[in-house]
Task: inverse folding
């Protein structure tokens, strides 16, 4: 299934450190459970297997069980249909590396130390894979890592270099770098299935982490599906021409589809000598990875796009909407491949009778803009960015997981680590800030469940120029503070009457009591999570 192209020299010193750190974790004693592990979940005493699948920048708007305007995603929908769909799932920091650190540690960025993509994740700290490994679980991860340090707590791992490449991706392994021929999403799935079929110990429970690169920018599709959506015109969002009135941070960003931020060469694939852009070389590098068959398919579609672009000589709104259509087509082609490959994993689990005792989680590392406010990317605490899809297929053979349908209680990605630990019957460390949502999977509605979420974004100055900010959101209102550098401003939104977050109500005296209440709640959460940012 996997075709190996190259392999570099082993990095013996780093490998030695990796093995030494893993070797310190005690495994199951023969015939029993690690002494520090808690009792398994009620019901069948057989430990649960856990499959955690996460894509990069997959918007909830492009999953058909959430929103059916753009694409059908039958395999992701199937996970929800055989379990639950979370309708209020959020991230703690909407940017790739920090989001992954929140997942691993169950802590906010200011606590796990990974505040921006420029930070290096401290892999010596406690993470849920390490705790599972110490409790006797087999652990494996394939795909995007994006944390600069090497993985720890995994028995088997192959991770993409940085953001990764869509074609013939290069992977880092404990033995060095390897290049696998093929399309990234398919290659990651191939590695996953090979591990499940040939490498795992079938007598032990496992936690398998699958991290897809797609649909991260610049949205390069599998050339076998390159014609998809070419004849479809997608609806332009109502907020596409947002003027950002009353929202200085929204006006100051640099991620507009209509602007130069959406690169004509890199993002829109206009590969021509007379189109020279800031990111042109990135496209050139990516195209070098295509073989002749792939390049023929690529040229057939994108040469036609280039000719159409030149012939039209578009300006103003016509140009902006043409760019939007190209963006949507390419993005959705990547989603189609993600959904197809999730189907391959689910089919394997079914054919091998693993669904009886396996829980499957699908999510994204954050939300993404599908043209809302005229944008692509994420970062802001606005809904499309901070909200993320989360669906969970529950094991068929475990009666305690009777819940089906929607869960509307607030969850965040800091909750994933404690949830996975509880599913495995492993004690949750007291310093984890997230809360296990296993009770929600059982159909419970705890009276003391969170009524609001806290968010903090740190990465500025940086790509897209989104200013630093933090805030609180409850079931109706959202309060955001932008701070530092050139913008110091508060924003307040009533999500019931203004779900698109167009009207900043912070200075509106009619909302003074609500503003005061949210200030109090924000301060409470900052103290609870030990974030010392000044109000």
Result:
């Amino acid at each position: 299934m996997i075709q190996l192209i190259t392999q570099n020299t082993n990095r013996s010193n780093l490998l030695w450190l990796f093995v030494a750190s893993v070797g310190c974790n005690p495994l199951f004693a023969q015939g029993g459970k690690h002494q520090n592990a808690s009792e398994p979940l009620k019901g069948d005493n057989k430990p649960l297997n856990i499959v955690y699948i996460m894509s990069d920048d997959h918007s909830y708007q492009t999953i058909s069980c959430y929103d059916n305007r753009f694409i059908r995603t039958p395999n992701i929908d199937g996970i929800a249909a055989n379990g639950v769909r979370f309708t209020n799932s959020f991230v703690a920091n909407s940017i790739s590396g920090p989001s992954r650190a929140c997942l691993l540690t169950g802590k906010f960025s200011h606590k796990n130390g990974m505040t921006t993509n420029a930070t290096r994740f401290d892999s010596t700290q406690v993470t849920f894979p390490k705790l599972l490994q110490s409790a006797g679980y087999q652990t494996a991860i394939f795909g995007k890592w994006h944390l600069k340090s090497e993985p720890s707590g995994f028995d088997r791992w192959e991770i993409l270099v940085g953001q990764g490449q869509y074609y013939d991706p290069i992977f880092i392994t404990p033995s060095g770098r390897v290049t696998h021929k093929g399309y990234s999403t398919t290659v990651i799935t191939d590695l996953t299935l090979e591990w499940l079929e040939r490498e795992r110990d079938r007598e032990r429970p496992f936690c398998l982490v699958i991290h897809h690169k797609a649909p991260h920018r610049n949205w390069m599709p599998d050339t076998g599906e390159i014609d998809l959506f070419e004849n479809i015109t997608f609806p332009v969002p109502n907020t596409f021409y947002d003027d950002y009135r009353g929202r200085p941070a929204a006006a100051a960003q640099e991620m507009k589809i209509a602007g130069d931020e959406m690169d004509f060469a890199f993002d829109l694939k206009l590969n021509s000598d007379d189109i020279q852009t800031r990111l042109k070389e990135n496209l050139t590098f990516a195209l070098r990875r295509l073989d002749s068959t792939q390049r023929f398919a690529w040229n057939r579609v994108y040469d036609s796009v280039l000719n159409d672009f030149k012939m039209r000589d578009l300006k103003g709104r016509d140009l902006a909407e043409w760019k939007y259509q190209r963006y949507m087509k390419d993005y959705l082609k990547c989603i189609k491949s993600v959904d197809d490959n999730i189907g391959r994993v689910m089919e394997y689990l079914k054919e091998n009778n693993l669904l009886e005792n396996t829980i499957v989680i699908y999510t994204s590392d954050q939300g993404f803009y599908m043209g809302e406010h005229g944008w692509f990317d994420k970062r802001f605490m606005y809904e499309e960015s901070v909200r993320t899809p989360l669906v969970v297929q529950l094991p068929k053979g475990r009666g305690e997981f009777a819940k089906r349908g929607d869960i509307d209680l607030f969850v965040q990605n800091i909750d994933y680590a404690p949830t996975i630990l509880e599913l495995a019957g492993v004690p949750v460390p007291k310093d984890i800030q997230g809360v296990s949502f296993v009770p929600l999977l059982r159909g419970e509605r705890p009276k003391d469940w969170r009524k609001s979420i806290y968010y903090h974004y740190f990465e500025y100055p940086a790509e897209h120029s989104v200013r630093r900010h933090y805030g609180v959101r409850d079931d109706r209102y959202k309060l955001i503070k932008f701070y530092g550098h050139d913008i110091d401003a508060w924003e307040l939104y009533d999500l019931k009457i203004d779900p698109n977050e167009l009207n900043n109500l912070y200075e509106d005296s009619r909302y003074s009591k609500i503003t005061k209440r949210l200030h109090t709640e924000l301060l409470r959460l900052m103290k609870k999570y030990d974030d010392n940012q000044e109000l």
